[in-house]
């Protein structure tokens, strides 16, 4: 009698605990305590609740550790535990008095916990299974009576009530939370200013409800409601757009993805589609004022829980329905913005074409308004102090290029601006390394200016003038050399005859002087003729270093006689097709010019090497005072010389020899000396 009173007292206490709305874990701990107190021969009670993955895991129980095994870590293996399976299927209590004679319990658990007898009970309410309860006594049989089993069932029923109450409470709380969520999304949607923002807000709340970040919104064409015109993906989506619109076989479904979307559009109802690759596909229609605007697809994959219950789908539909009116309004605004954007884009495209044409011009180009402000400048325009186009845009041109540094440009630009006429002129660059041809055209708001670098053009023009002079000299030489040489030969012959007259001995010194001068005149004529020759004959493959080595003694003698020094710095170079005598003359001419430009004790350096382009370079460097700019412009001009006794033909002949060998001569000069670079590029061509 006392035992029954104690049992009723425990049940009343548990009922009181349930009504106090404690957490479910605390309530179930009271149940396990009551069971262990009721069944004194039972020292282990465990309650297992189902999880989302279908397994049953330990929730509460006592003791916490048995044989070193933690209770909280226990998971029922339904494949091995036939007893648990049977309790789940029948939802009936099963008592095994002797586990050694019954194969249903998991043998691993029986061995680990030394289970001799075992009682398994379902926690159920109105045919709904909430969990499982297992009782055993460690290392000893329990020997339970029917009355004791019924007592345990009474406590387990109290656990079922507690779980049901907790479930009802959770449903109420969920309902309140859902309503609050819908209020929140309504408030936040009212602050959205774009379609993307409203869709992202919808994605955010759907992910909270469905637990997936793989979401895609397919929006219908406003004009053709059957065609999908736009697809938007959630931020964390790993589902490519190609997966949505591609081959249905990629989805591993019986129906094509497009047909599923059309089916949802027509029915205006959400649809769940199981598929192997994705586990589950949920398609929700986006409807506003009975008009379908599109669908939202939610894809669960990679082991995520994909079995949505009805409440989840209904809440997801409510979120989408709440989004639809805002989306519809924003869609209309977006259509208006698209119209404006299309027209703006057309204007921008036209402007872009114009800009592209201007930017494709490799010459400098800029435009000035009537206040002389730079309103456009391309990337090729030269600017002083290495300034960038962005740095000068909007600035006054005369702040960037002061008028006193470009007086011609200042005057011509003002003429174009105020007289409204095009002007064209040439000016040197501010660093005086180049020349520009400038053309300025007036337009309604100012003038536009084109700067063309003509440094190469001027160089070619100067070279053309020089070659023209050589050509003219060649023609003159060819025309008059014969007429000059004939009388000179006659005069020289008579002078030699006169030297044989003994009575004219006192005049022999004059005769010798006259003959020497005639020979000198003849050599000048020979050099003069060589300048007019445009083709070189007797070309042979030779090593330039060997040729320099052959004439080195002659150059050294000249150097030594003038108390000056010479250095040779020759590197390995390939053989070239050259005329030995002509190149020998070119080297001697350049060396003698260098020696004459230096003071005693200075060094003349002769170098050969192969440049990056594969051309052979002959460099002759002196340590003179350099060449003045006004003299440098005339270097190579026939008969132009700065020497008192020079003919002005040495460099002219050297330039002619270089031209006949398809070579070029470049000069680098400064206060520290001058270097003549002769570059041979066509080494093997005749």
3D architecture notes:
Helices cover 46% and strands 22% of the residues. Helix 5 (146-189) packs parallel to helix 9 (310-360). Residues 241-254 have low confidence and may be disordered. It has a 6-stranded antiparallel beta sheet, with helices on both faces. A 5-stranded antiparallel beta sheet has the order 10-9-13-12-11, with helices on both faces. Strand 14 and strand 15 (374-377) form a beta hairpin. The protein contains 18 helices and 25 strands. It is elongated and about 175 Å long. The chain is an alpha+beta fold.
Keywords:
alpha+beta, 22% strand, 6-stranded antiparallel sheet, 25 strands, 686 residues, 5-stranded antiparallel sheet
Structural class call reads: alpha+beta
What low-confidence regions span 5 or more consecutive residues with pLDDT below 50? Answer: 241-254
C-alpha termini separation = 132 Å
Radius of gyration: 53 Å
Number of helices: 18
Mean pLDDT: 78
Task: Spell out the blueprint of helices and strands.
Blueprint (H helix, E strand, L loop, with lengths): L1 H18 L4 H15 L5 E7 L5 E7 L2 E2 L2 E2 L4 E2 L5 H9 L3 E3 L10 H7 L4 E8 L2 E9 L9 H44 L5 H16 L4 E6 L7 E6 L7 H5 L11 H11 L3 E3 L6 E9 L2 E10 L9 H51 L3 E6 L4 E4 L11 H4 L4 H4 L6 H13 L3 E6 L6 E9 L2 E8 L1 H44 L9 H25 L7 E3 L1 H18 L3 E6 L5 E3 L1 H18 L5 E8 L5 E6 L7 H4 L17 H11 L2 E8 L2 E8 L6
Parallel strand pairs: 20-22
Antiparallel strand pairs: 1-2, 1-8, 2-5, 3-4, 6-7, 7-8, 9-10, 9-13, 11-12, 12-13, 14-15, 14-18, 16-17, 17-18, 19-21, 22-23, 23-25, 24-25
Helix pairs in contact: 1-2, 1-5, 2-5, 5-6, 5-9, 6-9, 13-14, 14-18, 15-16, 16-18
